[in-house]
Design goal:
By secondary structure, the chain is mainly α. The protein contains 7 helices and no strands. It is globular, with a radius of gyration of 17 Å.
């Protein structure tokens, strides 16, 4: 049990360092407007607090994965010099996080592997389609994978 807790604390510390990097990038940025800056900094503070001071029932690596997923959505799905700077600093800090493109991963794999991917895709599919980042064919494929994932969850749940 102590090993699991120390693993949690190690991962929470890494997430906290990633949040600190993001905070510095956001504060240095000339491209974030005041409203976005405030929302991003408040969100980072909330993520960091939840990771470092979880309620006992949430001091689990699975809970931390949700926080990581929520935190990295912006940094994985956005582009620009600030985002590139963020990922460069994360790499330099040897935190072990790598930039992911969940949509392309699912399209290559032809399957949604877990609830994190499912949540990300269902939360962002329309926006990604409307912004032109997904073709109509990709949307059709992703909707198929969403249906298959939902069916598999219903049959096992």
């Amino acid at each position: 049990m102590a090993n699991i807790i120390s693993k949690y604390e190690e991962q929470a510390a890494k997430l906290s360092k990633a949040v600190d990097i993001a905070e510095r990038i956001i504060k240095e940025s000339a491209t974030f407007d005041a409203d976005l800056t405030k929302r991003m900094l408040d969100f980072g503070t909330q993520i960091k607090h939840s990771a470092l001071n979880p309620d006992p029932q949430f001091k689990k690596l699975a809970s931390l994965k949700y926080l990581e997923s929520d935190f990295f959505i912006f940094w994985n799905e956005s582009t620009g010099p600030d985002v590139d700077k963020f990922w460069g600093r994360v790499f330099e800090s040897k935190l072990g996080y790598v930039r992911k493109d969940a949509i392309q991963d699912v399209l290559k794999r032809k399957k949604i592997k877990d609830v994190h991917e499912f949540d990300f895709i269902t939360d962002n599919l329309v926006v990604l389609q409307q912004s032109g980042r997904l073709s109509q064919e990709q949307v059709v494929e992703l909707n198929k994978y969403i249906g298959e994932f939902e069916s598999s969850r219903q049959s096992t749940g």
